[in-house]
Amino acid sequence: MTDRGRLEALSTRIHGERAVYTDKWVRLTLVDIEPPGGGRFEHHVVRLARVVTAAVINESDEVMLMWRHRFAVDEWGWELPGGIAEVGEEPAVTAAREFEEETGWRPIGSLRHLVSFQPMPGMVDTPHEVWTAVGAEKVGEPSDTEEAAVIEWVPLANVPDMVKRGEIAGSGPLVGLLTLLMERQGN
């Protein structure tokens, strides 16, 4: 059996999909699947829009983070500025727009793609992208004031301890910041 044939034999077959609930933010579907060696059944899948965040570093090797309360889990934590990409919007444009709306700062120069990932690919389809830039200029106050209680430049060197203390718990900032740190270490 070829590698392709073996992979196909190990893949879950999809027989169809139907929406259970849909609005502008979320789509809940039931997918008719047949795992290899298993019976056929329907599996819930949550489909969300593409999320784009910005990890902007300043000349002091600090990253801008937002301290936010997330009601769904009733927890506070540090996050990267970001949000949902508008239909047809380029991800670098989304990252810059969201960064400015949420912080009042504008990245200087072009943003560079850092990493793309799916935080929960077994049940949730929500593509995430993290973009990075060096430098930002203050252009005003945040226009989206509900996004952050505190906006702060945080030393990048503090990130590993913040992660250990559970202060950075969301998959977006975790993946983005840890990828940025690995990249800086040559990994």
TrEMBL record:
Return the Gene3D superfamilies for the record: Nucleoside Triphosphate Pyrophosphohydrolase
Q: Does the keyword Hydrolase apply?
A: yes
One GO MF term on file is: hydrolase activity
| Protein keywords | Hydrolase
* Residue span(s) of domain Nudix hydrolase: 47-176
Q: Which family does it belong to?
A: Belongs to the Nudix hydrolase family.
Under what name is this protein listed?
8-oxo-dGTP pyrophosphatase MutT (NUDIX family)
Per the UniProt entry, what species is this protein from, by scientific name? Actinomycetospora corticicola
